[in-house]
Model the fold of this input.
Amino acid sequence: MARLFLALIFCLLATQAAADERYQLEKVVEISRHGVRPPTPGNRKEIEAATARSWPQWNTADGDLTGHGYAAVVNKGRWQGEHYRQLGLLTTGCPDSAQIYVRASPLQRTRATADALVDGAFPGCGVQIHHVDGDIDPLFQSNKLPFAQLDPTQEKEAIAARAGDLAALQRRLQPEVQQLKQAVCSSDCAFFDRPWQLRQTKSGHTYVQGLSVLASMVETLRLGWSENLPLSQLAWGNITSAQQISALLPLLTTNYDLSNDVPYIAQKRGSILLDAIVKGLDNRADSPNTRWLLLVAHDTNIAMLRTLMHFSWQLPGYARGNIPPGSSLVFERWRDTTDNTRFLRIYFQAQSLDDLRHLKPIDSQHPLLRAEWHQQNCRETKVGTLCPYQSTLQQLNQAIDRHALSTVDYPQP
Done:
């Protein structure tokens, strides 16, 4: 009887091992948002004008990655390095370019985030970070390049159609507006009650006057919470919990809905990045031949990609579509070892507000929050949601504006 029991246990363990070994991870293409930063100089100027008061200065220059932000991203990189070594994607020791290739947007906060990610994944190895010279990058900051220029009339019409009745939208968000007003307003609060209106800049860019500044305030408060600023520096002591931050995030979501998440804008300015992702997954000749292609960019880049993909998520503690600092959109290519069939797994991942604030290492007690992408014929497996490789690639390809790709000679990752 004891022998029979042991035999059953052995069979169960063997079956479990076979299930775990059935799928092999072959390739990862990841687009990460930079880590925690103070408000950018432009954001600071507009939120201080709207509230008629100076907002707290941080220990880091406006717009740059903070030391706390660096440490949080190191935690994520450390977990990812260990995770991918366990899955057999990476080997031990320092990597060569066949294992990882990193390209960052040229801004300080993205290049420093890339450094932090590889410092965590490959400590002491000095992995090279690639980036273009100057501040214009066709992959990540294409708005100043000819191929990504928007027609002002089409842009305004697309945003107006997406917004619908702006007055009704503003009324629906009054609870969030009033909570924000109570948190950051001291004396002159007229700005919070002005009607939202579509406006165009001198260059023809359309934005929602009123909403865009409120969204900048919410993002600044969320970043301050993630930075672990003293409570006295978070809305002058009026915000004391992550739940208060979460309650304000719908204003940020709505601003995304009427900017980077507008399909016309996303296709013009996100197609080249999506094309680079597809080429990376498919090991095209004009893409780095590496197992982990890590692209470090901005929330706007991820927003445009998810719009092209029709990928919507809502992580616990965040509003719909929120893109926290250090979060990432991940594309994984898997192979079924029983028949060599390939699959794609696509997901979005981030740390919670409190885990970022308290620099919690990623582990079973503090896991990454994750949302998986689905389409027809995907299968649920022990390694995640696996979708048919060719049909998924085809769907991604169909979202790309091929005209934009044909009108620019852009450097590959």
Summary: The first helix runs from residue 2 to 22. The radius of gyration is 23 Å.
